[in-house]
């Protein structure tokens, strides 16, 4: 049996997070299938009752895909309840290049990505600068408070 992986992130504003994470991951909005003009049109055509679709749901893409076709599809699912606790799962955006790259270069790469993501709406929570361990990473939150790391 074939299996694919989809990452689902519960959120209040799918379009906002889809835009943010597309920027963060280098992904693109997923177009609606089968020549449909919107995902909402597709869902209604599949038989999803209108009353089950929140206002605005599917009018703009709520999922993003890797244009190279290698990474998982990410769907931002609108849910009514707010985020209230720390994530138990988080993403690591590995931009440093690994331990064979000098720490100063890795830190520079991480810092450049953090600057890009804060401009896109992320918030820095803490910097993990441990030169004696040859480690540099930054913990951030996306626009809805989901934590992730840039390493």
List the helices and strands and how they pair.
Layout: E1 6-11, H1 14-25, E2 28-29, H2 39-46, E3 63-65, E4 73-78, E5 91-93, H3 103-119, E6 123-130, E7 135-141, E8 147-150
Parallel strand pairs: 1-4, 5-8
Antiparallel strand pairs: 2-3, 3-4, 6-7, 7-8
Report what the structure shows.
The protein has 151 residues and is an alpha/beta fold. Helices cover 25% and strands 26% of the residues. The chain is built from three helices and eight strands; from the N terminus they run E-H-E-H-E-E-E-H-E-E-E. The chain has a four-stranded mixed beta sheet, covered by helices on one side. Strands 5-8-7-6 form a four-stranded mixed beta sheet. A hairpin with a 5-residue loop joins strand 7 and strand 8.
Give the termini distance in whole angstroms. 34 Å
Give me the secondary-structure category. Answer: alpha/beta
How does the major sheet shape up? 4 strands, mixed
Strand content: 25-35%
What are the secondary-structure elements, in order, as H or E?
EHEHEEEHEEE
Q: Taking Cα atoms only, what radius of gyration do you get, to the nearest Å?
A: 18 Å
Number of helices: 3
Number of strands: 8
Give me the side-by-side strand order of the main sheet: 1-4-3-2
Oligomer: single chain
Helix content: 10-25%
Keywords:
151 residues; 4-stranded mixed sheet; elongated; alpha/beta
Q: What's the short story on this structure?
A:
The chain has helices at about 15-25, 40-45, 105-120, and strands at about 5-10, 30, 65, 75-80, 90-95, 125-130, 135-140, 145-150.
